[in-house]
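Hey, quick one: can you model this chain's 3D structure?
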Amino acid sequence: MNRSIFPLIFCLILVSGCRSTRPPEAAVGASFHVLTYNVNWGAPRPELAAEVIRASGADVVCLQETTPQWEQFLRRSLAKEYPFAEFRQSRLRFGGGLAYLAKKPGKEVAYVPSNTGWFDGWLMAFQTAIGSVQVLNVHLRPPVSDSGSFLAGYLTTSGDFNDVEKSEVLTWLRNKGMVNALPAFDRGTATWHWHYGLITLKRRMDHIVYSPELHCCSAKVIRAGASDHFPVEAVFTRTHSKVQASTSPWPQPLAAALVTQTE
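Sure thing. Here's the predicted structure for all 263 residues.
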């Protein structure tokens, strides 16, 4: 073999190692399962969304882009599996609604109206098998330009199609000690797709971010449903570590925190 190619092979191995993922693991003991899903305000094939949610078996489901029509359908379709269902409709934007579905009751901590004209945020606390968990459900501004073009907004805001780890929001959360669940298990699968003529735009826009008290056993994109977004799910156990009050963005005291978001 030509010795001149050794440095190239070595560099490729280093690059591959830096982007390695770990296999999912079965949760040992008590666990907590969360699903986030932007269902699309247009309600395409709502029965598929209900089936995805039901089949996931998640303890808590965070939904974005819900509408009164979505609320009526999901309450009727999933009442047995998710007796706790809370919906909030946006006062500023149609399709800006948020919702929680859960197997056990939750308690609202805060509802934060948007001060930018886009979407609100909603923080709730749940008593789960691993203790108290606060879950923040947010819907960030999508990759749409000020003129309303998805194509222009996508091309001017996304950079590398899957380069979400460098986004301002995820960078801020990471600096606060939070961890993005999905990249540890899957670095490539897009969670959003949009057909624009002959072009199909794809991007990873849906995330589950968690605090150090939690250990992520698995996280994945569920390629199902009729929305332009795919659901993302993650399973957690407790690590029993502590968050320093000086760095945590969450109210104290706190057992654990999750952020589910979609752009």
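One thing worth noting: The helical segments are 6-18, 46-56, 68-77, 150-157, 168-175.
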